[in-house]
Amino acid sequence: MRSRSSSIIAMVVVLLLVAVPLVFPADMANTLSRVLALALLAVSLDLLVGVSGMPSLGHAAPFGVGAYTAALVARDVDAFAPLALLAAVVTGGIFALVTGVLMVRTKGTYFLMLTLAVAEIFHVLAQRWEGVTGGTNGLYGIPSITFAPGGEPVTLAGLRYWYILAVFLVGFAVVWWTSRSTLGRSLRGLRDNEERMSSLGYSTFRLKLTVYAIAGAVAGAAGSLWVAQNRFVSPEDLAFEVSAMALLAVVVGGRGRLWGAVLGAALVTIIRDDIGASLDGRGPLLLGLVFIAVVYLLPHGFAGTSWRQLLTRRVQEEKA
Amino acid sequence: MTALPANFITNNGVTMIDGLATGVLLFVIALGLSLVFGVMDVLNLAHGAIYLVGAYIAVALLGGGSTMTLLAFGGAVLLAALVGGASGWGLSAMVRPVAHRGHLDQALLTLGIALVVSDLISMRFGNDVRSIPAPDGLDGSVSIFGQSYPLYRLIVIVVGGLLAVAALYVIERTRVGSLVRASVVDPEMVSALGVDTKRLVTGVFAAGAALAAAGGVIGGPILSAYPGLDNKVLLLGLVVVVIGGLGSVSGALVGALVIGQIETLGVSLLPDHASFLVFGVMGLVLLVRPQGLLGQKEVSA
């Protein structure tokens, strides 16, 4: 019963998202495109944080690697959208696989610190490796995506939005399927009791490395969406702020609830870009306060909080 | 192995001394990070922000002038240490309620605090780079290897070196130090022995933060003060801790000296590959000794 009602809700939400460009002006499609790219990043991060218990502070790194790859492919090879996407998925996954060999052997605070340090080193690298990344200026003037090799550039915001929505849905499905699969169950076991999984004969190293690579590949896909929308990539796209935003989205939404991460991404984008901008550019201050508030007040996020219970308790308290 | 050419030292000596100054400064910063990490198992992402508070205390006390008496500079160091100690105490009090909830929540909390603090600083002081002059009498230069070299950096090496010796002495030779070291290895056991670990942890937090803030003033004439410096300092501190091993004072010293050389000598010899070098050294240490060069704590699965 419950699963049927949630799949109906999911279908309604998807239909509403599809309808957006038909109803609203192009600005709305552009904003939502950015939200969807960040949401896919947050969903892939939730696969690590919520499902597998591997809290990464450096998830902007595979996102940025994917973004730069997509930008270079679109500029130097062909702007055919699936080509850039595929390249970003592959490089994001390989990047995570290679760095993961070092990182997934650690856990807890050490894992937090390492993911942060490695991501920041690649942030600095993006600033300095001017021949490839364009240095601090970044890569600009990336051609619009095309839906056929060498075809006409897609300039309509609505069409581009539909492409981004489609990739987002596929990416979400990959993560959802991973978390529901045998692998996902093993990962939850890993999160809850690593020693027991290890004694049961699971190779925790291989499990962790696999999920780390999958999350990296999906983050790479999110990076290619980011470039498809913005047609610009700079070192700021793999800065710590991006990792922090994605993490905040996951935590606000509720760890381990993939749709919560999507909701969180929308909320975080609104806080930073709309409310933050209206407060004279004090976005970081606001984000910091949200971080503190969420840790103290909403430890399970929106999706993990039992609102019904909270409400009924309050009603009962008022009656008493 | 080929012998180093005889003029290597003469050519790079100044850069290496620069690296020593950077390394010593990094040690003062990373020590607190490493100990809080070791004793409390908390990744304190606000550590860089506390350094920045120290640096801007120097900016505020200087008030835009171009000189600073030695007394005023010393006062700034002292004030920064006090403010830093108080903020460390406050941080540990804020982290305690979520201590049972896992590493991520603690890190997120300190991240939130760091964002708020650094944004408040940029609101008050703006986004420009603010330079901090060396105090009067120490702002001259001396001749080393036939080149003139700022005297202040030599003073930093001496002062930082004294601090390092003092920290090593406290940790390795005193009763408090032995409790801290024991807490790094097995906090439950230390608590079971009747030691007030709560006070111990608060003390370590406060002392580490005081060092970081004082480091902000001392490092001011070298690194200046600007928004974003907090992240840079935090990152270098993290790399130092990874290389040295968490909770290890001598490890932090070794890691800091190594990173100091990479940041100066590495940049000067291999300008295109310096950021790779930091990563390379860190990756190598992780592959060979995941717990860090001098770390003892179990970190791997």
Kindly describe this structure.
The complex is a heterodimer of chains A (320) and B (301). Chain A is an all-alpha fold. In chain A, α2 packs across α11 and α4 packs antiparallel against α10. Chain A is globular and about 55 Å long. By secondary structure, chain B is mostly helical. A two-stranded antiparallel sheet of chain B has the order 1-2. In chain B, α1 crosses α10, α1 runs antiparallel to α11 and α5 packs across α6. The mean pLDDT of chain B is 84. Classes of the chains: A mainly alpha (320), B mainly alpha (301). The interface between A and B is large, with 45 and 45 residues.
Brief overview:
Chain A is an all-alpha fold and 320 residues long. Helix content of chain A is 78%, strand content 0%.
Features:
A: mainly alpha; 15 helices; 78% helix; B: 301 residues; mainly alpha
Write the layout of secondary structure elements.
The complex is a heterodimer of chains A (320) and B (301).
Chain A lengths: L1 H22 L2 H26 L8 H17 L4 H23 L4 H21 L1 H4 L23 H24 L1 H11 L1 H6 L4 H27 L9 H14 L4 H21 L4 H15 L3 H4 L2 H13 L1
Helix pairs in contact in A: 1-7, 2-7, 2-10, 2-11, 2-12, 3-4, 3-10, 4-10, 7-8, 7-10, 8-10, 11-12, 11-13, 12-13
Chain B lengths: L6 H34 L6 H16 L7 H26 L7 H23 L15 E4 L2 E4 H23 L1 H11 L1 H6 L4 H22 L1 H4 L5 H16 L4 H21 L4 H15 L13
Helix pairs in contact in B: 1-5, 1-6, 1-8, 1-10, 1-11, 2-3, 2-4, 2-8, 2-10, 3-8, 5-6, 6-8, 10-11, 11-12
State the total count of DSSP E strands of chain B: 2
- The stretches of 5 or more residues of chain B where confidence is low (pLDDT under 50) are none
Distance between the termini of chain A: 34 Å
Structural class of chain A: mainly alpha
| Order of helical and strand elements of chain B | HHHHEEHHHHHHHH
| Greatest interface (CB-CB under 8 A), with counts per chain | A-B, 45 and 45 residues
* Overall pLDDT level of chain B: 84
Q: Count of helical segments of chain A? A: 15
Count of β-strands of chain A: 0
* Strand numbers in spatial order across the main sheet of chain B: 1-2
Unreliable runs of chain A, pLDDT <50, ≥5 residues?
none
Helix-and-strand structural type of chain B: mainly alpha
Broad shape of chain B: globular
